[in-house]
Design goal:
By secondary structure, the protein is of the alpha+beta class. About 15% of the residues lie in helices and about 45% in strands.
């Protein structure tokens, strides 16, 4: 009897160890002329609005997604320069559902804006606002970069560097690393919740560690709830539109403010420039910051092409012409960053 029970227990354990057949969604995205559209980011969205997975359509507009659980979803397909395509789908356990989505070319046009001194910076601007229109296009590129990063489906060859320059002397020192392969994210940063609560500059011993935002940080609720957005017309010159962001006033940690630069004709994201906001360090703040540059691949994927962070070190001096109090002056500018020399997109199959 004990032997029979043991056999039954082993059989039950083996059955539990065998994974259930996954439920999948397979489909195609086409334009109004029924031509396939490649490079669309397709995701499954739950009734509560949470998006899962993510796949880029191939040259034939095809995609395959794995649903986390059986149920009703909305399939959403997006690409910079195209209208968002959505379609409902019901996914049964262990079954495959098929769907066809239709999109159309959509010109990037900012709505008319009345510039006012008050209230121009809004947290989560609403549809119809110029800042919302610019953010919606930037978001599409950032989501592709974030999905590829999170699924580790992009491999970079990067060369990092560090440099320092002492002001007033003309002396500059620069060091570069040998190229190396990196999968997922080419540079390291902290999780959005950590940056929101503890700030972008951290003390470690007698050193300061500076962190910059990646695509996942910029898309996070933590970032969007603590920063407001507006169109900066002073920087929106020539071919670029500058979507500015800045921390809300109640922030009590070292934060960042800056701009997302988009191509005025296409809405394509080019780079993110930012500066660190440090109370009591006004003379240094204008020089401490960073840049993350983005590039669109022929497949429609968005990847990081270059990044850098600039920091400053103050030298204190006594101003005898006044009260003899020490004042800070920027004495040295340091920079660290990296350049992507090669990008390989890994298997497009959904993990």
């Amino acid at each position: 009897m004990r032997f029979a029970r043991l056999l039954f227990s082993l059989a039950a354990a083996l059955l539990l160890a065998i994974p259930a057949a996954a439920q999948t969604v397979r489909g195609v995205v086409v334009d109004e002329a029924q031509r396939p559209v490649s490079g669309m980011l397709v995701r499954l969205v739950t009734p509560g609005g949470a998006a899962s997975g993510g796949a880029l359509t191939d040259a034939q507009g095809r995609f395959t997604l794995t649903a986390p659980a059986p149920g009703a979803y909305t399939v959403r397909a997006e690409r910079v320069g195209y209208s968002t395509a959505v379609a409902p789908v019901d996914v049964a356990a262990g079954q495959m559902a098929e769907v066809r989505l239709t999109t159309a070319v959509k010109a990037f046009v900012l709505p008319a804006v009345e510039v006012t001194a008050a209230g121009r910076c809004k947290v989560r601007p609403e549809d119809g606002d110029a800042a919302y229109t610019a953010w919606d296009e930037a978001r599409k590129a950032l989501e592709v970069a974030a999905v590829l990063q999170e699924q580790r489906r992009v491999e970079y060859t990067v060369r990092t560097f560090g440099s320092s320059m002492v002001l007033g002397t003309g002396r500059m020192r620069r060091e570069e690393s040998e190229p190396r392969r990196v999968t997922g994210n080419p540079f390291h940063t902290l999780a959005p919740a950590e940056l929101a609560s503890g700030g972008y500059v951290r003390e470690e011993g007698d050193s300061l560690l500076y962190y910059g935002p990646d695509a996942s940080v910029l898309l996070s609720d933590e970032f969007l709830d603590t920063h407001c957005l507006y169109i900066d017309f002073d920087q929106s010159q020539g071919r670029m539109v500058a979507l500015a962001f800045e921390p809300v006033r109640r922030r009590r940690v070292v934060d960042i403010r800056g701009t997302l630069l988009l191509d005025k004709a296409t809405g394509e994201l080019r780079e993110v420039d930012y500066q660190y906001t440090m109370q009591g360090m006004e003379q240094e703040r204008s020089r401490a910051g960073g840049t993350v540059e983005f590039r669109k691949m022929p497949s429609g994927a968005w990847v990081v092409s270059e990044w850098r962070i600039r920091t400053t070190r103050a030298n204190f001096r006594t101003d005898y012409s006044r009260r003899g109090d020490p004042t800070a002056a920027v004495g040295e500018i340091r920079a660290a960053g990296g350049e992507v020399t090669d990008v390989v997109l890994l298997d497009q199959a959904q993990p």
